[in-house]
Specification:
Number of helices: 2
Structural class: mainly alpha
Protein name: Putative MnhB-related membrane protein
Largest sheet: none
Strand content: under 5%
Number of strands: 0
Keywords: Membrane, Transmembrane, Transmembrane helix
Order of helices and strands: HH
Radius of gyration: 15 Å
Shape: elongated
């Protein structure tokens, strides 16, 4: 598997994980009262998405053109 495919899989995975967390909040709003769930959701959504964007910007310059 080349790095371009790995980036696509990682991007899709973090997107699905974010959707799952937000869906859990939509279907069970009392989870928003739990400090543990709030901390985990914040870590997944904010740090995961910002980290993924930064990783794409700084490591994906060539878009996988020179990779084998």
């Amino acid at each position: 598997m080349n790095m371009a495919a790995a980036r696509i899989i990682a991007g899709g995975g973090i997107f699905i994980l974010t959707v799952i967390v937000l869906a859990m909040l939509a279907f069970k709003p009392d989870l928003a009262e739990s400090d543990l769930f709030k901390s985990l959701a914040q870590a997944i959504v904010i740090q995961g998405l910002i980290g993924l964007v930064m990783a794409f910007l700084y490591t994906g310059k060539n878009g996988g053109e020179n990779e084998q």
